[in-house]
Amino acid sequence: MATRDLTRRFAELRVLQHGVEGSASESKRPGDAFSESGLLDDASTGTSWASTRHQLPPLWVDKVDGVEEDVRLIQLKLRELSALHTKRLMVTFDESEAERERDVEDATREVTALFRRAERQLKHLMGESAGLTPAEATVRNNIQRATARKLQSLSGGFRTSQKDYLRRLQAQKKGDGAFDFLAEEERASKHAKGRLDPGFNEQQMAVLEDTEVLVGQRDGEINNIVKSIEDLSTIFKELAVLVIDQGTILDRIDFNMEQVVEHTREGVSQLQRAEEHQKSALPLKCIGILVVLIIIMLGLLVWKHSN
């Protein structure tokens, strides 16, 4: 569907209105006769603000556009976060792993903040109903519910991806192959010396310390993911409130569709009756009788005058 962006024009006209109202309040004196239409005229364009105002979208359309922009950013950030999850789950033991963890945490915070901002804008949109006609209120409510459903779907997908990432991270943490190299060296030492050496060499201790640090970092990351999932659960519940009456809307749509079908059937029946009436021979018979009567009357009239 083709659309036009009138936001800039709307902002210019709104600023113009404020300026005109301010100048009118400063210059108005008792006894002066000011015309409201004159005050609202745009001298540069020759158009009236009252006539131009009806050509602009309502104020709540700006908030809807803001929510749609947040939804677009959320979709973009979710794709980036999915790629970061894949990179993070690659097992490495260098500094890049900590950097990947920070990238994942930053992206998660950004997505959560976008969800909260979009939710706040939707709530503000619910409260802006003053001055709306019933038709405009219906359109606004339908757009709001559709946007809330879209946002709720994204929130559910985000929560699912976070749970999957948490599950894979915990499975990676609980892997049994982290210390296999120690067992291999112990078995080799036991086979060579005939006994088990209870100590660790310097290399083993260094690897063990690095592993403990890595496990601690993963514990912190898991806690952050759990917290983000809890926040998402709260957002998901709040969004569900915005679409709680979706069943009622669907019922009304079904009722309207049934009414349309019923009216269509009645229209088809009327058309069939009209077609049958049009094909009937009775009107033709009436026309023929009238023509014969007219001819007889004309003959009588001519015979009377000829006598």
TrEMBL record:
It comes from the Eukaryota. This is Soluble NSF Attachment Protein (SNAP) Receptor (SNARE). SMART domains: t_SNARE. Signal peptide: none annotated. The chain crosses the membrane at residues 282-303. InterPro entries: SNARE, Syntaxin, Syntaxin/epimorphin_CS, T_SNARE_dom. Pfam families: SNARE. SUPFAM superfamilies: t-snare proteins. The gene is SNR4. Belongs to the syntaxin family. GO terms for biological process: intracellular protein transport; vesicle docking; vesicle fusion. Residues 212-274 form the T-SNARE coiled-coil homology domain. One of its GO terms (cellular component) is Golgi membrane. Residues 20-50 are annotated as: Disordered. Keywords: Coiled coil, Golgi apparatus, Membrane, Protein transport, Receptor, Transmembrane, Transmembrane helix, Transport. The keyword Cell membrane does not apply. GO terms for molecular function: SNAP receptor activity; SNARE binding. It is found in: Golgi apparatus membrane. It is a single-pass type IV membrane protein.
